[in-house]
């Protein structure tokens, strides 16, 4: 990853952390504290770029005209914890930061792939509606499987 992109991602993550007012759980950290916290707190979870070396927990889905690979961890956690998923999309304008919320996802009526597909379709619709607001264009190749 180019150094400028790495710095921008760190900047963006710092802004997200400040905005949400709490810590980020990073891939590979223990999940037990996270599950305990779900009992008493609202959590924001992001659909993230899969790690190139670990596609085992990913599902292939249509995304921006190709097949992208997306982690199912968010869906797995929601089903296991019987947690509600309320999709949201954040964007910025000259007036500041904004959030669009969607209807809750009925996680108990769907499997992990269906949940992830629903969330990815929402993400894709926002990207297509306002492409300049998506800050992961540089990471797009990471969504495509490199067989």
Query: Order of strands across the biggest sheet?
Result: 1-2
Helix content: 25-40%
**Sheet with most strands:** 2 strands, antiparallel
Based on Cα principal axes, name the global outline.
globular
List the secondary-structure elements in sequence, H or E: HHEEHEEH
Overall pLDDT metric: 80
Q: Kindly name the structural category.
A: alpha+beta
- State the helix count: 4
- Radius of gyration, taken over Cα atoms and rounded to an integer in Å: 15 Å
CA(first)-CA(last) distance: 20 Å
Low-confidence segments, ≥5 residues, pLDDT <50?
none
- Which range does the strand content fall in? 15-25%
The total beta strand count reads: 4
Overview of the structural elements:
It is a single chain. The model has no long low-confidence stretch (mean pLDDT 80). This protein is α+β, with helices and mostly antiparallel strands. Strand 1 and strand 2 form a beta hairpin. Helix 3 packs across helix 4. It has a two-stranded antiparallel sheet. The two termini are 20 Å apart. It is built from 4 helices and 4 strands; from the N terminus they run H-H-E-E-H-E-E-H. The longest helix is centred in the N-terminal third of the chain and has 18 residues. It has one domain. The chain is globular and about 35 Å long.
Question: Could you give a quick summary of the protein structure above?
Answer:
This protein is an alpha+beta fold. It has helices at 3-20, 32-38, 73-81, 112-129, and strands at 58-63, 66-71, 88-93, 96-101. The protein contains four helices and four strands; from the N terminus they run ααββαββα.
């Amino acid at each position: 990853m180019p150094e400028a992109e790495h710095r921008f991602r760190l900047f963006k993550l710092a802004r997200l952390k400040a905005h949400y007012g709490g810590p980020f759980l990073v891939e590979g950290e223990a999940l037990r504290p996270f599950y305990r916290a779900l009992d008493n707190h609202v959590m924001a979870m992001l659909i993230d770029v899969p790690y190139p070396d670990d596609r085992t927990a990913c599902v292939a889905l249509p995304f921006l005209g190709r097949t992208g690979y997306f982690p199912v961890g968010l869906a797995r956690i929601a089903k296991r914890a019987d947690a509600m998923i309320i999709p949201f999309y954040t964007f910025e304008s000259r007036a500041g930061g904004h959030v669009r919320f969607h209807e809750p996802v009925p996680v108990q009526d769907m499997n992990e792939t269906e949940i992830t597909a629903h969330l990815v379709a929402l993400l894709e619709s926002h990207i297509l509606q306002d492409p300049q607001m998506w800050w992961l264009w540089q990471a797009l190749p990471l969504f495509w499987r490199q067989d």
